[in-house]
């Protein structure tokens, strides 16, 4: 493809169709200033966005851009000048993975020295590259700043490394070591894992309403069954005697839920999707949040206000009739990101975790994202010299390479806070990898079956979101964190606030 067709094709990709005269001007600039079509189009787009609000090129604007952007670049170097090298310091990349292309680049520069006048060498060009340490942290990114690859002072001075904070059953450290290989099959439970990308922000209200209605009917009917309640009725039916109504908790406004603003939204079949105001004044205690499915016993004297006397909200799933069996005990290590400090991108916590894993040899390692944290200050400042996808791949490959020859399988849970993932929930796994065992990339949330043992995984802080929306009476109850965690089990859902 010649220069003219290349320029035309690239502008068409940007949605800009150029006339022949403008194309001629573009080719003229490229030939005059010895610039290829890629560099020319990039220069024009940068100039247009900065100065012309993204307008298409004209003869006049191209001429102006040529004077401003290419004039200094095209000035010939004087052969009488003692130094012909640029005085600016070249952009240095730290911790860049060595490639075969580096050596020829240096050799080519040295050959140029033999045919150009000698001048003062810019020591920074080679000094910084050659002074880069030979051994680099396995998970550090290529960076434009040496600060990013400097170990964290906070992390190195911690005093509680390896300390057990909470024990459910007291055991010695050796008890957690994998003793033998166990044949394990890790697979999505009932296909409850996103494997393909979906269209973002394409959520018809009819589909959303249908999903919420299914939750009301499924959890609501189970609440009625396990508590031995009578069949639920229409929530606006006038009743002076106690009846049962099933529905999901809503708020009568867009504000936070409070005891005076609680609505009970019924299912389509029983209540036509209608909502009724819920009076909680006769309850001695309650814990509610938007999206919670409840069964309420009470009266509705006017048909407009349901006065609750009893409230049921706990519907934990029953244990399976047959428990999963394993040929030997399995060890599972679970770690949640981010896996580096806010003042460094050396990923020292991940390095320590991998040392633990290689020593204790668990059968499964579950890493809950983000791996490439969007909230990391040095990452958001644009200091890394590689794409987010490449950096994510580098971390994952580093993990897998350290586990070669072991029986450990790795599960990586996606996160909306991961720069390599889509910022949506549910979050599909990144497409930059084509994983195969021992690596499993799964969505957020995900249900995994490990030889029949089902594990629910999510990278979203459901408890924090629940804590912001929940109301509880009487206030000041103990173990609030335990109560928030129990909602996930009682409602059969890893994310409640809909």
TrEMBL record:
Keywords, in A-Z order: DNA replication, Nucleus
InterPro entries assigned: DNA_pol_a/d/e_bsu, DNA_pol_alpha_B_N_sf, DNA_pol_alpha_bsu, OB_DPOA2, Pol_alpha_B_N
GO MF annotation list: DNA binding
UniProt keyword rRNA-binding present: no
Domain DNA polymerase alpha subunit B OB: 211-313
Family named by the database record: Belongs to the DNA polymerase alpha subunit B family.
UniProt-recorded name of the protein: DNA polymerase alpha subunit B
Organism (species): Homalodisca liturata
């Amino acid at each position: 493809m010649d220069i003219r067709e290349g320029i035309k094709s690239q502008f068409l990709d940007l949605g800009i169709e150029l006339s022949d005269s403008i194309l001629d001007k573009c080719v003229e600039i490229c030939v005059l200033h010895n610039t290829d079509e890629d560099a020319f189009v990039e220069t024009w787009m940068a100039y247009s966005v900065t100065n012309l609000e993204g307008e298409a090129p004209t003869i006049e604007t191209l001429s102006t851009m040529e004077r401003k952007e290419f004039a200094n670049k095209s000035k010939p170097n004087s052969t009488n000048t003692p130094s012909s090298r640029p005085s600016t310091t070249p952009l240095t990349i730290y911790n860049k993975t060595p490639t075969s292309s580096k050596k020829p680049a240096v050799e080519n520069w040295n050959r140029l020295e033999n045919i150009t006048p000698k001048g003062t060498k810019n020591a920074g060009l080679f000094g910084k590259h050659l002074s880069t340490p030979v051994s680099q942290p396995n998970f550090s990114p290529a960076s434009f700043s040496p600060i990013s690859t400097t170990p964290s002072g906070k992390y190195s001075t911690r005093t509680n490394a390896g300390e057990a904070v909470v024990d459910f059953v007291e055991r010695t450290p050796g008890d957690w070591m994998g003793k033998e290989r166990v044949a394990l099959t890790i697979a999505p439970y009932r296909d409850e894992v996103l494997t393909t990308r979906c269209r973002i922000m394409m959520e018809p209200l009819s589909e959303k309403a249908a999903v919420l209605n299914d939750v009301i009917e499924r959890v609501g009917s189970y609440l009625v069954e396990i508590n031995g309640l009578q069949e639920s009725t229409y929530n606006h039916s006038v009743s002076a005697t106690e009846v049962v109504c099933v529905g999901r908790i809503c708020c009568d406004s867009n504000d936070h839920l409070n005891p005076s603003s609680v609505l009970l939204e019924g299912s389509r079949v029983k209540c036509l999707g209608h909502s009724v105001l819920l009076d909680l004044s006769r309850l001695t205690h309650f814990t509610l949040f938007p999206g919670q499915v409840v069964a309420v016993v009470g009266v509705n004297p006017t048909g407009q206000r349901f006065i609750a006397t009893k409230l049921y909200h706990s519907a934990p799933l029953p244990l399976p009739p047959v428990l999963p069996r394993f040929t030997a005990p399995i060890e599972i290590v679970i770690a949640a990101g981010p896996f580096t400090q806010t003042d460094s991108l050396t990923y020292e916590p991940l390095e320590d975790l991998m040392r633990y894993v290689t020593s204790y040899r668990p059968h499964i390692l579950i890493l809950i994202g983000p791996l490439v944290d969007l909230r990391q200050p040095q990452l958001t400042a644009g200091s890394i010299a590689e794409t987010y996808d490449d950096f994510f791949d580098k971390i994952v490959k580093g993990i897998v390479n350290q586990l070669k020859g072991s029986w450990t399988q790795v599960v990586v849970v996606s996160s909306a806070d991961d720069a390599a993932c889509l910022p949506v929930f549910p979050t599909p796994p990144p497409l930059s990898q084509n994983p195969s065992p021992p690596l499993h990339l799964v969505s957020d949330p995900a249900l995994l079956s490990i030889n029949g043992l089902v594990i629910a995984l999510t990278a979203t802080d459901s408890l924090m979101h629940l804590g912001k929306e929940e109301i509880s009476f009487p206030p000041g109850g103990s173990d609030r964190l335990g109560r928030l965690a129990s909602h996930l089990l009682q409602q059969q859902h890893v994310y409640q606030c809909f």
